[in-house]
Design a protein that fits this description.
The protein has 270 residues and is of the alpha/beta class. The protein has ten helices and seven strands. The protein has helices at 18-25, 33-45, 49-69, 88-95, 108-118, 134-138, 141-146, 170-180, 201-213, 223-227, and strands spanning 74-78, 100-105, 124-128, 154-158, 186-191, 233-235, 263-269. Strand 2, helix 5 (108-118) and strand 3 (124-128) form a beta-alpha-beta unit. The protein starts with 17 loop residues before the first helix and ends with a strand. The model has no long low-confidence stretch (mean pLDDT 94).
Length: 270
């Protein structure tokens, strides 16, 4: 298998990556055939997966604009993935040129490409770290050099928590991050769920099985379980809802049925 020039040395390009699969769903070019093969297998069960990812990105952009409108111009995006058009720093900088963004991912391709995209941008950096080790993120010199944790920060956990199993204790990681943030900080979350998917749970489970087979289990949590990640935050209206229903720019009924899969929400730390 030929290694593309943009692929960092030392990574196994025969093993699928969830961030590169996500890049493929969004029409990106930073993925390998092994990623595309896994994505196509998942789409055999859930052909609307790209629509879900597009709805996820659209929610993220609305949430970032909301944060800036509330005076929050510092962003910590964990599980940021491979940069595509309309990424957090682009949206935030368009809304307020003074916005600062720290991206965090543990995928070497995502980190390397992010560094290339952000080269020369003094208001956005990327950290190679894992959500499972929040203190490593908080102690990183990149974060310390760009964000002031004494002021409100918007913490983005977009399409990442469902890749942490309960044994990884994701709620503890989220709580540790929350405790490090100043009052007035925001948490922005999307999470996969069987609720809202226009398929039977059994059929949708086939796509979940594909992720399990590539050793990146996709944990489908209920709305009640997802709501627990917002402990210590006050929910922003309209609460924890499907992605198209969170402060839409256009009537939600025009969205593809798959866009209503899973949940999204924003909370504010008191």
């Amino acid at each position: 298998m030929e290694r593309p020039a943009w692929a960092p040395q030392g990574i196994d390009i025969s093993v699928p990556s969830v961030s590169r699969i996500y890049d493929y769903y969004l029409g990106g070019s930073h993925n390998f055939e092994v990623d595309r093969e896994a994505a196509r297998k998942a789409m055999e069960f859930m052909p609307g997966l790209p629509k879900i990812m597009q709805a996820n990105r659209a929610f993220m952009r609305r949430a970032v604009n909301y944060a800036v409108s509330e005076g929050v111009t510092q962003f910590l995006d964990i599980g940021s993935g491979i940069p595509t058009f309309g990424n957090v720093h682009e949206v935030a900088h368009k809304a307020d040129a003074a916005s600062r963004v720290v991206y965090v991912d543990h995928d070497p391709v995502a980190v390397a490409h992010s560094r290339a995209v952000l080269d020369g941008d003094e208001q956005a950096v990327v950290v190679s770290a894992d959500l499972r080790k929040p203190q490593q993120i908080l102690d990183s010199p990149e974060l310390g050099g760009l964000l002031d944790l004494e002021r409100p920060v918007a913490l983005l956990l977009v399409a990442v928590l469902h890749f942490l199993e309960d044994q990884d204790d994701p709620r503890s990681a989220v709580a540790q991050l929350r405790d490090a943030l100043a009052p007035g900080s925001l948490i922005i979350v999307t999470h996969a769920s069987f609720e809202g998917i226009p398929l039977s749970e059994e059929h949708a489970g086939g796509a979940v099985g594909v992720y399990r087979n590539i050793r990146n289990p996709l944990v489908m949590r209920s709305r009640e379980e997802i709501a627990r990640f917002f402990e210590g935050y006050e929910m922003i209206e309209p609460g924890l809802v499907s992605m198209p229903h969170w402060r839409p720019d256009a009537p939600a009924e025009h969205e593809d049925p798959y866009a209503f899969s899973g949940f999204a929400g924003v909370g504010r730390k008191a």
